[in-house]
Amino acid sequence: MPRRIPYQLQWSDSIQMYTVFLDGKQMDLEPFGERWLAWLETVSSFSFQSRSGANCTVRKEAVQRGGTYWYAYRRSNGRMLKRYLTRTTELTPARLEEVALILNEKQALSGSDLPFATRKHTVSHTQQINEGAHSQPLLLTRLHLPRLPMQYVSRPRLLALLQQGMQGHLTLVSAPAGSGKTMLLAEWAATAHFPVAWLSLDTADNDPARFLAYLLAALVSLDQRIDAVYQPTNAHHPEQALAGVLNDLSRLLEREAVVILDDYHLLTSDAVHQLLRFLLDHLPAYLYLMIGTRVDPPLPLARLRMQRQLSEIRTEDLRFASNEVEALTTTMGLALSHDAIDLLELHTEGWIAGIQLLTLALHGQTDASAFLHTFRGTHRFFLDYLSEEVLAQQTPETQRFLLYTSILAQMTGPLCDAVTGLSNGQTRLAQLLRANLFVSVLDDAEIWYRYHALFAETLRTRLQKLEPDVIPELYLRASRWYERQGHMEEACDYSLLAGDFPRAATLLTELFPQLIEQGYFGQLGHWLDQLPPALIANSPQLSIAMPWMYPFHQGSSDHMEQAFKHMERHMQKHQQSDAASWVEPQSVLTLLHAITAISHNNFSHAFSLIGKALRALTQRETALSQLISRFLQISLSIMYGVSGDLASAEQTLLDLSTLLPTTPFSVVHLAALFLLGELYKAQGQLHRAEALYDYPDKILESHAEIPQMPLLVISYSLMRKAALLYEWNRLDAATSIMQQVQKALPSATLEIIPSSSRPKLLIFGLWAQARIEWAQGSSEAARAFFEMVQSQPEILQEPDEKEQTPINLTALIARLQLLYGQTDEAIRWQRTCGLHFDDVPETLQQGERIFSYLTLARILIAQGRRNPTDKTLSQALTLLEHWRQLAQRLDFQSWLIEIEMLTALTLQAQGHTRQALNTLGAALTLAEPEGYIRLFADEGQPMMHLLAHISPYTTASPAYIQRIQSALPSGYQALLNPPQVSQKLPDPLSGREREVLGLLATGASNQQIADQLVISLNTAKRHVKHILAKLAVPNRLGAVIRARELHLL
């Protein structure tokens, strides 16, 4: 039987305060008053009922490390939900209200089971985002639909306009402040019969990572079936993260849904505007966008108007008519004559905020009409006059509360208490709401509030006039409160507003290692820009932070080098007097010099530098020193690798991945595991590599709430996993992984690729998908791949000649051309790639280009098959021998297996079949333990001929050989046992069919064939059908293969 709770704390609507009961009888105790803490020390539990009706049980519990803390409990569907509250001294009504609301939301039905009018207010997905390891949580109040005030006047005419506006994908509500934009959008959203997502914007959203985090949270709330894994923010490619959710919505939405962005005028960042344009250009069919703003956003509005995709509600539409002015003044408790109503409309021009302000002033007038007849002034004078009249009617304590809290963007009781030095801040906010003093509630629990923007501005102007000296101190109080709550970003913002740059620098010093590791470069740069340069230069920590900004904001390595030189000068200046403080900057400089030494193959000097830096950081336990140490160890492992000491490279990465925490998310952790995976793959340990490539999935499952998850890195790891699955011929599983990747890198939407970027990841993704489809007998992805590189050749160019791409993008193209039988095109790459068969690789650093060299070997083999007397086969053997020696020296089994396999194919083409079988047999013996399949199967008919006679030449099992043979694409399978036909077909191809066959060989679709030959689509399909029948093959791939066998191509 549950234990009875004798004490109850609950909100009373009748007396508008909290009360405490003992066994149903009210106690003589004022909650949160002077005796409140003493009472809490004497009790161990009580039940709580919030203002919204949410309830829970509150218990005091001791913990092992000492001390007592309060926890909230609520039973739901047979499970007991638990939530940490706080210490006794910090048990405030705001905290109780917040936690009770969370526990009751967890008990509520899922959004898919609720009516839309209810679902639009749920925040289950954003709660998931907020409850995880992410140390800078999203403020859920910004995703809440604003509540309509009691004095709100409904506007059916404008609601109809908003509904009609959904004929296009964008509705713009643009008008000056105080015109009623937010309330109109909120009323429409509250009455909508389909999902609506709300996002209230603020100036901090000019950081693209922060804006994207909130935007994704809003989009995900539209359909609770959306997987939360595609919510990370990536400072490099934010469009990829947004594309993932848009793809989900496109797939899941079966009826209209709307995203509302309010206060968009606060955003001035070009990067954020670009992200909005991307969203608008790629909205799913059923998704609509509404924007509330004071100024028109930088969008292609003229084009949207012409395309009838834009609906606009502007100042003229929003102005109150006489009947609406009368309705508003009546709800505010003022009965005016028709003459006074007309005058009020005349003075305010239907401006809603002005009507409200002037109506408040009229409450103190005996003759409203006379006052309005004599009232004159512009908006500025009007607001100044009313600020005095409204404030003059309040008590001195209320005036002080209003003025002091006007510096806050958002307010809650404890924050107001900390800023004003007064008490009962939560009660005061509720009183202001009821008194219509331009306060809006931000959540259903009435915990967070904000002032009307113009009212707050008026209050701040008044405060600046009356008490200018107190303003910096108020900002500092807000900063200290946010710091105590763990909201370091807000703490830093308010320190900067206070002009306390040393404090802001101190906060930023603590915060920036986390920002760097988690990708908040935009916000970090925003803060650094506000600090005096001298303060940054003289701070060892901030002097490190500054260079991180240049690659992301300046886009030039020269700027970064200048920053490091600047840091080096200041370090030399201060190091004599304060050497200990400059250990971290010295380590960063050492890392830069070590990287330079590596590029010049001076490994011994690089090792010496890294060792020196690591030793200097050994005794330091700061977050900054730990971050730098991790980067140094990553660099050390790479140096071990390029110098050939792979055992040390592996051990360094193992040590690093073991020591690193798995939460919060660390990009260094992911890099260490990824490098290990690449090392294991090269060594032929595919299953060990797979376990490490699985790590991104585990991150996405356990830390999906981290909005800045670097999808670029995650996607590349997923593609490496897909490559392993492909190698094992698990084609369906590989396809599934690639579909995950496409949510972040939508290969079908090629027009979104910026021409100035180098989308290597997208190209690699398309290439991998094309290989999978080739093995399945399809060529759609290959066509998309070839079309992209032909239409956008600039994406293959390397803008920095110093940068070396490990897998040359053009080699990817050549490899795919070989796979699809386009040998002549691949030969053209051979002639221009700059690689030579007699190049001798000596280090792992050179070995990074093995993919390109083995592509060259395949082209030489293909040329030799055409002309066996040609010297290309001998050149291929020379090339392969050079790489065999390096592979054996590094003990890279994966390289060795592929090199031996290609050597066997070369010997076969030379007519040395027995030698080829011996070589292939050894490769198969090495390959079987790790299950290599497609490496052999992708070589097609020549490999099939060798496998048919391989048994006496290998210790690999017959079952393994059979698995490789079974993996042969259907086009080749048809050729294993071809019908007995002569080179001259019984039913020869017509001239037109030969033309169609030639286009098939290029990967052209039926529609492209029809367009090229100026025939109908049905005629093109008929020609393709006849070709397949005459060649006795099941599909297009088989047709191309058979045609080349018959020398028809």
Structural class by SSE content: alpha/beta
How would you sum up the global shape? globular
Number of strands: 14
Q: Can you tell me the CATH topology of one domain?
A: Rossmann fold
Radius of gyration: 35 Å
Distance between the amino and carboxyl termini: 85 Å
Strand order of the largest sheet: 3-2-1-4-5-6-7
The residue fraction in helices comes out at: 55-70%
Strand content: 5-15%
Proper CATH architecture of one domain: 3-Layer(aba) Sandwich
Which ranges are low-confidence, i.e. pLDDT below 50, for 5 or more consecutive residues?
109-135, 228-235, 551-557, 703-709, 746-758, 799-807, 973-983
**Tally of alpha and pi helices:** 53
Give an overview of the whole structure.
With 1049 residues, this protein is of the alpha/beta class. Among the domains are: 7-107, no CATH class; 127-318, 3-Layer(aba) Sandwich (Rossmann fold); 322-391, no CATH class; 394-491, Orthogonal Bundle (Arc Repressor Mutant, subunit A), CATH 1.10.10; 506-574; 710-798, no CATH class; 991-1045, Winged helix-like DNA-binding domain superfamily/Winged helix DNA-binding domain (Arc Repressor Mutant, subunit A, Orthogonal Bundle). 58% of the residues lie in helices and 7% in strands. It is built from 53 helices and 14 strands. The strands form 3 sheets. Strands 3-2-1-4-5-6-7 form a 7-stranded mixed sheet. A 5-stranded parallel sheet has the order 9-10-11-8-12, sandwiched between helices. Helix 9 (270-281) links the parallel strand 10 (257-262) and strand 11. It is globular.
What's the gist of this structure?
The protein is 58% helix and 7% strand. It is built from 53 helices and 14 strands.
